[in-house]
Amino acid sequence: MIQTEFPVDTEVLRSRIIETARSMNTQRLNVNKSGNVSARCRAEGGALAFLITPSGVPYDDLTPEDISRVTRLPTGEWRDEGPLLPSSEWRLHAAVYESKPEVRAIVHTHSPKATAVSCLESGIPPFHYMVAMSGAAEIPCAPYATFGTEALAESVTGALRHCRVCLMAHHGVLATGSGLPGAFALAVETENLASMYLDLLQLGDVRLLPEDEMARVLERFRTYGQPGRKA
């Protein structure tokens, strides 16, 4: 993916980030100001840059001017360009964008069902074929690390190596996409799958789809949907 494909930092993009963040609350994926949302944007000289929700501000109070911008300098260091301090998880977003060039948007939630599964230090196994929407045969769980740290960034990027979404142990969910709608939809689907999985755990033995079937589903998902439309 080349830099010119990234959207320009505009009021429209900033507004879409706010809309996505507010949708996390209306869809009950978050409460008040938990979680965070970001999107890549175009930067001068091909530098990596992204817009992200600011730290500790209720989403209903946000304006486009409040959205923080973070840019990687030629030295490899990151510069917070304000106007407000970025989310405490900006390092996590930066690490995902660095390690996965195809990702253009990130949605991080504390959705209750998926977070409950993460507190078991367990991922979501292939009990349902829709688990393959993650891009893998199961949704992994990144090992716990303190929020806002490089250790958490390393843990999550490791879990995302072969998929588009992961649980974060004792924390929440991180979903990626080629755009904000796709990342948000994946976070919603993950919460739905986690809810079903928790119900199954209460019933006893969970029957899983075999590896060869999940491989077939993954192959079919590669051509699923409308050509040319970004997820």
From TrEMBL:
GO function terms (MF aspect): aldehyde-lyase activity; metal ion binding
Question: Which Gene3D superfamilies does this chain map to?
Answer: Class II aldolase/adducin N-terminal domain (3.40.225.10)
Domain Class II aldolase/adducin N-terminal residue range list: 15-198
Q: Name the InterPro entries for this protein.
A: Aldolase_class_II_sugar_metab, Aldolase_II/adducin_N, Aldolase_II/adducin_N_sf
- Pfam families attached to this UniProt entry: Aldolase_II
Gene Ontology biological process terms from the UniProt entry: pentose catabolic process
What's in the GO CC field?
cytosol
User: Keywords of this protein's UniProt record, alphabetized?
Assistant: Lyase, Metal-binding
Q: Does the keyword Metal-binding apply?
A: yes
* Family matches, as SUPFAM superfamilies: AraD/HMP-PK domain-like (SSF53639)
Q: Which PANTHER family match?
A: 3-OXO-TETRONATE 4-PHOSPHATE DECARBOXYLASE-RELATED, FUCULOSE PHOSPHATE ALDOLASE
Name-wise, this protein is Fuculose phosphate aldolase
The organism of origin for this protein: Mesosutterella multiformis
